[in-house]
Amino acid sequence: NAGVTQTPKFRVLKTGQSMTLLCAQDMNHEYMYWYRQDPGMGLRLIHYSVGEGTTAKGEVPDGYNVSRLKKQNFLLGLESAAPSQTSVYFCASSMRTENEKLFFGSGTQLSVL
Amino acid sequence: AQSVSQHNHHVILSEAASLELGCNYSYGGTVNLFWYVQYPGQHLQLLLKYFSGDPLVKGIKGFEAEFIKSKFSFNLRKPSVQWSDTAEYFCAAPPSGGYNKLIFGAGTRLAVHP
């Protein structure tokens, strides 16, 4: 019963390096999301997708790119990491018909030095 | 801009104490509101939700929340907390245009001491 799986769980980058965070869900959900969580700021939406092959910007999209080539996967890319991107990243998914009920992954702790 | 505010960032209680966590939203019109919870080492999960009808909604584990339109509030309550309620609690709401952009509050960390 995997649900939403994020990899990696921890990562340390140097400024300017690139990386990709992978999110996979096995619930056949149509919608997927990437959030970042920072102290005192709650969760802020980075990008989201309402279906395979479609993506849209959220509240804080700058510096990130996403792709949804397969329904079950949602990738978050950082092309040139900056210290301001140090955060905990959460992936989530939901059904189209009950899309207020998000299922979250366990998070990725990213530090950019 | 539409926003969701949680005023208490850290709350410390003893077991059996009553709990009330504040949540305020900034916009009018049709309002749907949610509380999510993240227990230590676990994923964020939906605790309860309000769509319409009875403004007092009940969720899992004895939690309830009351929607007060005149105060733009959706406070979370529990009459008697347990050590297992130690968690971080997030209020959330969708802006106009759909649920696929849930706005979360900053969260409240609750610590319950035995």
Order of helices and strands of chain B: EEEEEEEEEEEE
Largest sheet of chain B: 6 strands, mixed
Q: Helix proportion of residues of chain B, in percent?
A: under 10%
Put simply, the count of helices of chain A is 0
Structural class of chain A: mainly beta
What Rg of chain B is obtained from the alpha carbons, in whole angstroms? 14 Å
Beta content of chain A comes to over 45%
**Euclidean distance between termini CA atoms of chain A:** 35 Å
Helical amount among residues of chain A, as a percent range?
under 10%
**Most extensive interface, residues per chain?**
A-B, 26 and 23 residues
Would you tell me the structural class of the helices and strands of chain B?
A: mainly beta
What fraction of residues of chain B sit in β-strands?
Answer: over 45%
- E-strand count of chain B: 12
Averaging pLDDT over every residue of chain B, what do you get? 89
Question: What labels describe this entry?
Answer:
heterodimer, A: 113 residues, mainly beta, 4-stranded antiparallel sheet, B: 114 residues, 6-stranded mixed sheet
